[in-house]
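Comment on both lines for my students:
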Amino acid sequence: MKEIRVLLVEDHYLARMALHSVLSGHSQIRVVGEASDGEEGIVMYRSLQPDVAVVDLRLPRMSGFELITQLRQEFPKARIVVLSNYQGSEDIYRAVRSGAMAYLTKDASGEELVNAIQSVDRGLRYLPRIALDRLAERIPSVDLTPRESEVLACIAQGRSNREIADELHIAEKTVRIHVSSVLDKMGARDRTQATIFALQRGLIHLD
């Protein structure tokens, strides 16, 4: 079983120690670094290049939102789990828009955190029901064709246009047309927003 290398970015020492203890108790996960503020988190990520970063949003010197944005700019494939006390829809939305692939509140169980890390490491999003519920007011009505629904499911899995074309056995140009139609019908600015909308409305389900 693949070992998952994890970086913790959390300013509270006791919280960081608790996270380290929980994660180190899992045979598949190894905590390779701990940062106490956003700027240190950037430096350590560059040095360690972990499989997954677990990030708080309230950090000294650089907020979690800024940290996520910068990491994704430098490392487009960075896989980030947010673990925060913030529960507002705008906080969740901003975190996911910035590039986080999972969002948990700090009352989540250790088992759920491990599940989120494992999902994100596989390239999957992890948004529990409480996070999806907070985003409800952002969801527009939508009526997709069967083919558009298939394309949307592939989008949610993070697949490129070429990968979607191969999966559905259609031309890449046709995929671009479907993607454009899906975004337009859902009122989404990009693929991430379309995925959030689709998850909340139950149009797709990610295991």
Summary: The mean pLDDT is 88.
